[in-house]
Amino acid sequence: xxxxxxxxxxxxxxxxxxxxxxxxxxxxxxxxxxxxxxxxxxxxxxxxxxxxxxxxxxxxxxxxxxxxxxxxxxxxxxxxxxxxxxxxxxxxxxxxxxxxxxxxxxxxxxxxxxxxxxxxxxxxxxxxxxxxxxxxxxxxxxxxxxxxxxxxxxxxxxxxxxxxxxxxxxxxxxxxxxxxxxxxxxxxxxxxxxxxxxxxxxxxxxxxxxxxxxxxxxxxxxxxxxxxxxxxxxxxxxxxxxxxxxxxxxxxxxxxxxxxxxxxxxxxxxxxxxxxxxxxxxxxxxxxxxxxxxxxxxxxxxxxxxxxxxxxxxxxxxxxxxxxxxxxxxxxxxxxxxxxxxxxxxxxxxxxxxxxxxxxxxxxxxxxxxxxxxxxxxxxxxxxxxxxxxxxxxxxxxxxxxxxxxxxxxxxxxxxxxxxxxxxxxxxxxxxx
Length: 433
Prior knowledge:
Elements: H1 8-44, H2 48-58, E1 67-74, E2 77-84, E3 87-93, H3 100-108, E4 112-114, H4 116-122, E5 137-145, E6 148-157, H5 164-243, H6 252-284, E7 292-295, H7 296-306, E8 312-315, E9 321-324, H8 326-343, E10 352-358, E11 362-369, H9 376-379, H10 399-409, E12 414-420, E13 423-431
Parallel strand pairs: 8-10
Antiparallel strand pairs: 1-2, 1-6, 2-3, 4-5, 5-6, 7-9, 10-11, 11-13, 12-13
């Protein structure tokens, strides 16, 4: 054996080790490349569903993840994303709608890494695809943005337990997802707020235009209507005097016909005057008055007592208080009660309910009746001016419009209509400051 031959086994071993390291390095490079591409793809997605789908499809290129579940929480809003292989499901919900597992996960916000044995012990508590019996590796990872936790990620592997590199990769993918989902939720919230502000601005402009138009028309119509009513009253008086004169008996029937005609003209003129007065309320009612601390129970009882033609039951927690314009509140609830009397069950379908409740972020007053409700095509028009289902029965359809204007401008509150056949509720929401 030559001297050089004695080193061959060692050299062979070194070559094999170097080859394995080269293969591992190449494998890591592929995984890193897949990770970078996936994160780049995530940042380009415009919806949570798109984020979920691209991750479910491409995560396999950088980690052996078979099922995963991501919970993101932002400003009291939750996004829950679940995936098994390439199948995804996205839910947007409030914190009180979370399953027990997710609620506890978010409350603890701690990392956990389970081996196959620990995973088997915990499997009965896991939801959905995370409880797959084929799982051998499981991790819970809190996802941070600065000092804040914005998400909790659960990942399951069927192939092998997650090592340190797997955990790092999973954390990076989860962080990219949570950051993008948070950006999408923020964009959605800002867009919704912008649209709401635009709607309010448009409504205020429309209310201003409507108020000026109505005031102008009412001013022009009031004077001739007043003259007409006065002339009819004078003419009716003269006819009555003439009818009582001697020798007018032969013309009694003719005089009666004339009197009836004059009475009809006067009646319709007074009706027109009432409509004009009602129209002027569109702009006059929304002028804000003084805001005073008000006990709602007593105020609701006073409002109920003022509507003597209607059966009203009230309910309100003792001591519930709001600082508001009392006249404006009486105007809003008065319009809603009048509407319940005219269209709802207040006439013969039982009492109307006037209810106040307190929630975490708002105080709500509801007017509930047992009326027939609104057809779907009518529901969205309730607060529009001149919308009524009884146009030819003496109603001009501005009660809801006046109530909405006063609620918005004088009470800084929001009106919401909820109607199903046999039950209608109009809710007046006051946000808590």
